[in-house]
Q: What sequence folds into this?
């Protein structure tokens, strides 16, 4: 809906702004109190639809003058008019659509005024398209679009000047359900293709199976916005990054309560590959790995060891380093299910135990001899 300020109403009526405010206060003109984003204060806003017919007509005629009408043909071009041109009254368009119409009218006038000066008009058209892309960022323009817009411009068909693909009609763009369904099948896969890659694939698919829809195919940005709006993040995570990543990020979890835990009760062990490349004694570049134990209560790193690759030996060396550093031994250690932790000699196979393992009398583990209980991650 279009609105006028008291000052704009005064200019439209040809009276003073003071008189316009007085008739608003007296209720002779319907107005609403709205916050002006520029001055952050309330002011009168008059809906154009509530004005008398003569003022309403004057307002829209002024807008039409700003947009203008199509000029006379400078030369006879083989331009095909719209077969089914939809003619709407100018006041039926939104302010955003009128802004786009004005933009295209100015572009097309400039194109025709400059084009007549060039002998090689096809060469000039390419230069003019490049000029428009530089001056109007994000505009959807090509030779076909320029000629199609000009055909609508000649007929004063404002509806033909509105871009049906981009942001001018945001929230109102229609998309064929089969096209969207195929796009989601291409996008929601473990190879994680980009939206632009999927868009090129859907263009080829549409051209092959739905050629009648190709010209009205929305932009890649439209598909991207619909992904953000309609596909839950957990679905994207599950289909593109896998079950574990989805469960780790979106599944419900229970926070550990450390209130009754004392220092040195539980140590947590893990490995991390350092983001530093160094030279080995042989002079070869490599990335070392860190095996470390952290006290669950205090968060202190109690012991660590550097190695070429995580292994059971590094796990034991880091445990020994923690004891030698004066931290003693914990009541229990928390391991994940990595092969460097779940070995027979250290603490047993944990969740990796199979029916044919641990048969017979196995010697006691190192952790059991030290009086340390091993706890494994659930997955």
A:
């Amino acid at each position: 809906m279009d609105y006028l300020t008291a000052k704009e109403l005064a200019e439209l009526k040809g009276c003073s702004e003071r008189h316009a405010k007085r008739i608003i206060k007296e209720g002779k003109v319907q107005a609403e109190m709205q916050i002006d984003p520029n001055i952050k204060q309330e002011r009168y806003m008059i809906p154009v639809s509530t004005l008398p017919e003569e003022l309403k007509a004057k307002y829209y005629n002024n807008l039409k003058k700003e947009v203008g009408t199509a000029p006379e043909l400078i030369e006879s071009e083989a331009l095909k008019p719209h077969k089914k041109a939809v003619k709407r009254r100018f006041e039926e368009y939104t302010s955003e659509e009128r802004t786009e119409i004005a933009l295209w009218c100015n572009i097309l006038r400039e194109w025709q005024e400059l084009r007549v000066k060039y002998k090689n008009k096809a060469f000039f058209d390419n230069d003019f398209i490049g000029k428009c892309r530089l001056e109007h960022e994000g505009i959807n323009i090509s030779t076909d679009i320029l000629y199609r817009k000009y055909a609508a411009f000649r007929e004063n068909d404002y509806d033909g000047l509105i871009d049906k693909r981009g942001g001018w009609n945001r929230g109102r763009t229609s998309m064929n359900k089969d096209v969207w369904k195929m796009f989601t099948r291409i996008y929601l896969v473990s190879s994680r293709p980009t939206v632009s890659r999927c868009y090129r694939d859907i263009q080829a698919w549409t051209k092959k199976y739905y050629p009648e829809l190709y010209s009205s195919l929305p932009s890649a940005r439209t598909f991207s916005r619909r992904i953000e709006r309609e596909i839950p993040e957990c679905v994207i995570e599950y289909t593109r990054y896998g079950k574990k990543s989805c469960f780790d990020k979106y599944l419900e979890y229970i926070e550990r309560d450390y209130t009754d835990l004392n220092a040195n009760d539980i140590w947590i062990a893990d490995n991390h590959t350092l983001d530093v490349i160094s030279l080995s004694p042989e002079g070869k570049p490599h990335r070392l790995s860190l095996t470390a134990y952290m006290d669950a209560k205090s968060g202190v790193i109690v012991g660590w060891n550097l190695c070429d690759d995580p292994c059971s030996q590094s796990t034991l060396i880091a445990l020994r380093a923690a004891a030698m550093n004066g931290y003693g031994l914990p009541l229990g250690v928390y391991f994940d299910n990595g092969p460097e932790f779940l070995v027979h000699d250290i603490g047993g196979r944990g969740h990796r135990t199979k029916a044919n393992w641990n048969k017979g009398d196995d010697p006691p583990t190192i952790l059991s001899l030290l009086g340390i209980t091993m706890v494994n991650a659930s997955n």
